[in-house]
Amino acid sequence: MRCFAVAAALIPIVAAETFNILVGQNGELTYTPESVIAKAGDIVNFQFVSKNHTVTQSTFLKPCEPLTTPTVGIDSGFQAVPTDATSFPQYSITIQDGRPRSALCRITDQEYLNVADQTPFWFYCAQAPHCSKGMVFAINPTEAKSYATFKATAMGGTSGSTTNAPTPSGSATNSPNSARILSGNNAAILATLGLVAGLIL
Fold first, then answer.
1. pLDDT tens digits for 122-157?
2. DSSP 8-state symbol, 162
3. Is 49 helix (H, G, I), strand (E, B) or coil?
4. CA atoms of 102 and 195, how far apart (whole Å)
5. How far is it, in rounded angstroms, from Cα 111 to Cα 103?
6. Is residue 192 classed as helix, strand or coil in its secondary structure?
7. What end-to-end distance do the CA atoms of the chain give, in Å?
8. What is the pLDDT of residues 70-93, one digit of tens each?
9. Euclidean distance between CA atoms 93 and 39, whole angstroms
10. CA angle 141-53-28, nearest 5°?
11. Predicted TM-score (pTM) of this structure
């Protein structure tokens, strides 16, 4: 027991962080903040606060196109927020330590993305033409693959979704999750969709 206590004391403890991202703050086509640097255990929490937006995974080279290969990327689906909303959709991504595939498969109604430590991830709003107007987001951008370059490419590229989603009306509702295991290894990203009531902006 004494040796175990000494060993445990030598292991650095890094507190997990939660990054709150406002989607459509002040009615603008933005994610605020535009990027974060996240580690294993951190949560990236998207709060949809206006209009009708998505958090859709893409690639660095094609910012306004959904990731489809080698696997289908994470996608929140359209989250409509009425102008008089008192509750707001929320989509969370949790970066987790690596787990064997069997352990991931035991958890249902979630989406997972297996990644290497601090791998860059790229996202955009699929509501046309929001992406081509610069509505993009990044997790762990690097000097070689910077957020600024990603955004500039988006604004010079395609407009994302080929059709507009319906205009928000009525009450905000959840979109169901579909369980899906995506390829890769080491750290994992877990995405969940929920609803936040009484969010104070």
1. 999 999 999 999 999 999 999 999 999 999 999 995
2. S
3. coil
4. 29
5. 13
6. strand
7. 49
8. 888 889 999 999 999 999 999 988
9. 12
10. 80
11. 0.71
